[in-house]
Design a protein that fits this description.
With 343 residues, the protein is α/β, with parallel strands linked by helices. The strands form 3 sheets. A 5-stranded mixed β-sheet has the order 6-7-8-9-10, with helices on both faces. A 3-stranded antiparallel β-sheet has the order 3-4-5. The protein has a two-stranded antiparallel ribbon with strand order 1-2. A hairpin with a 5-residue loop joins strand 6 and strand 7. Helix 1 packs across helix 3, helix 3 crosses helix 4 and helix 7 packs parallel to helix 9. It has 14 helices and 10 strands. It is globular, with a radius of gyration of 20 Å. The two termini are 31 Å apart.
């Protein structure tokens, strides 16, 4: 019998609003039992919705899903991603972990706008993380990863009730091969595939060098990408696309070129026009203001504390209200307030 989750039985609602069959629910229950006793905080990350994703990425294999989720829970226990907060520390933009200011250069990671959560959303209301490699300003891999994880956790906090995914937009404006951090690409690939499975809705690679798309297709035709290579261009390209490799991710990666109306249709289908114009190209890059963004992130952290969120997947919460001026100013656009679900 196939290990895939099949729709063979009458469906019943799961705690994320989707329906699961009796067979699927049994596998969810079996996986949860296989985790054994857990501290209360870690149990918040074992909702039916979360367990269902770990089963899905493992083709319904309970044993593999259990192993993968256990590794994720171990990582969350040690890395504490939900405790990374943005503050103004002695007048310096900083991130803190467990109440302790860490690495003064962490603030430096956000300063140029190389990665940030956009105030724009797609047509489904999914949060958008923007990456702009030309703004790379650091070789500190741990610091970059802390900030990337912070952006991912923040995006998860702001997902609408009916969504479990986020959008990644990689804008290659002013890009050079030297902008690529192989270490960060490798770490991001590992974290996204193992600790945030099925969280990627769409990855838009906007105006990438032509060779990127060709090499991406080559990687899939050979079912792998090597960590060791001797051609500089192929080596850098492989590391840039590595976070977006994987059988379940392939169809989610979209190559878009501003001079190609066919691929631009992808953006039109994904975003309202004013939304994607606010996150792409030189105008968006130059308008990023770290101080405005920092104030917005502080408010996001206050919202998290106010709601009493115990991890980004703990329970369903609704947040309705006007966006702050800081949030509107990040991309110079006003967007519709959304309902936040943590499930």
């Amino acid at each position: 019998m196939s290990t895939e989750l099949k729709n063979t039985d009458a469906a019943t609602p799961a705690n994320n609003g989707k329906c699961v069959t009796k067979e699927q629910q049994q596998k969810i229950d079996d996986l949860r039992s296989g985790l054994g006793p857990l501290p209360e905080k870690l149990s918040w990350y074992c909702s039916d919705a979360i367990i269902g994703r770990y089963l899905q990425v493992n083709n319904g294999n309970v044993q593999k899903g259990t192993k993968m989720l256990k590794e994720c829970l171990k990582w969350r226990s040690e890395y504490k991603p939900d405790e990374i907060l943005w503050i103004i520390y002695n007048g310096v933009l900083s991130l803190i972990i467990s109440g302790t200011a860490v690495q003064e250069d962490v603030a430096f990671e956000a300063e140029t706008g190389k990665v940030y959560r956009s105030a724009s959303v797609d047509k489904k209301g999914r949060p958008v993380i923007v990456m702009r490699p030309c703004r790379q300003n650091s070789s500190n891999i741990p610091g970059q990863m802390k900030y990337l994880v912070y952006c991912i956790e923040n995006s998860m906090l702001n997902m609408p009730p009916d969504q479990e995914e986020m959008i990644w937009v990689v804008d290659f404006w002013n890009f050079k091969l030297s902008n690529i951090s192989m270490g960060v690409s490798k770490e991001l690939s590992h974290i996204m595939q193992n600790y945030y499975p099925d969280r990627l809705g769409v990855a838009v690679l906007y105006n990438p060098p032509w060779i990127f798309e060709q090499f991406y297709k080559h990687c899939f035709s050979h079912n792998s990408v090597s960590d060791t290579c001797f051609n500089p261009i192929k080596c850098h390209t492989s590391q840039m696309v590595k976070p977006f490799l994987g059988a379940r991710i392939r169809d989610k990666v979209k190559f878009v070129y501003s001079n190609d109306s066919t691929t631009m249709k992808i953006m039109e289908d994904l975003f309202e026009t004013e939304q994607f114009e606010s996150v792409l190209g030189s105008k968006a890059a130059e308008s990023f203001d770290i101080h405005t963004y920092a104030q917005w992130m502080k408010k996001e952290d206050e919202k998290r504390r106010f709601l009493g969120i115990k991890g980004n997947e703990a329970r369903k919460l609704s947040v309705v209200g006007e966006l702050s001026e800081e949030e509107k100013a990040v991309n110079g656009e006003q967007i519709t307030p959304s309902t936040t679900e943590v499930s």
